Automatic annotation (TrEMBL):
Record's protein name: Uridine phosphorylase
Annotated ranges, domain Nucleoside phosphorylase: 29-210
Domain of life (superkingdom): Bacteria
Keyword terms: Glycosyltransferase, Transferase
Organism the protein comes from: Petrotoga halophila DSM 16923
GO terms of biological process kind: nucleoside catabolic process
Length: 214
């Protein structure tokens, strides 16, 4: 049932979470975490019997089923700082696998609009993860999730690429060198939220992966 009333939050594990307004039992062990709340509707259209759990501050959560497996979908908002709050709160109430689905921009000439990017690691320039760990701490996808995403893409005959993604925190930077530098390093794509996902999941002992769409 959609919770119409704002519930008393604590932000602690196994309690109602302050921002997402979800508590124990509201989300499945597997949660898909798009940034844009508009993408939630598209994702839940693929689920069976999706139920709206909460909506607060632009953060929407649904829980439904894929075949017989429970799956939740929660929007994170834009950027590492907002997204990391959502990741933390989902983990607090039982999320075990977080899969981000979101837009990326390609940084290599061979990458075309519509290509699928499945990164195995990220450059950490997201504006949040540096407050968790030193800058030389790696941001990497969970191997099990990464390999499952690769396998799923192959089974669907998707044209996908893999490599390193750059998560940055300045959407409207107008300096071409800002982007060209990472292109020279063979970084394949850029987004704003994936590196904070990989760091938070690593520190909290859960699994994470990322699917980007150019």
């Amino acid at each position: 049932m959609f919770k119409q009333d704002f519930r008393v939050p604590t932000g602690l594990e196994n309690q109602i979470q302050y921002h997402i307004q979800c508590g124990p039992g509201d989300v499945a062990p597997v949660v898909i975490v798009p940034g844009d709340q508009g993408r939630v509707e598209s994702i839940i259209s693929k689920l069976h019997d999706p139920k709206k759990v909460s909506e607060n501050r632009g953060l929407i959560t649904y829980t439904g089923y894929h075949e017989d497996y429970p799956v939740s979908v929660t929007s994170t908002g834009m950027g590492g700082p907002s997204a990391s709050i959502v990741y933390e709160e989902l983990i607090n109430i039982g999320a075990k696998i977080l899969i981000r689905i979101g837009s990326v921009a390609g940084l290599q000439e061979e990458i075309e609009e519509g290509d699928v990017i499945i990164p195995h690691a990220c450059v950490r320039d997201d504006g949040a993860s540096q407050y968790y760990v030193p800058q030389n701490f790696p941001a990497v996808a969970s191997p099990e999730v990464y390999l499952r995403l690769i396998s799923a893409a192959k089974s669907l005959n998707l044209d996908f690429k893999t490599g390193i993604n750059w998560s940055h925190s300045c959407f409207y930077n107008r300096d071409p060198e800002y982007f060209q530098r990472w292109s020279r390093y063979r970084v394949v794509s850029m987004d704003m939220e994936a590196s904070s996902l990989f760091v938070v999941s690593s520190l909290r002992g859960v699994k994470a992966g990322f699917i980007g769409i150019c």
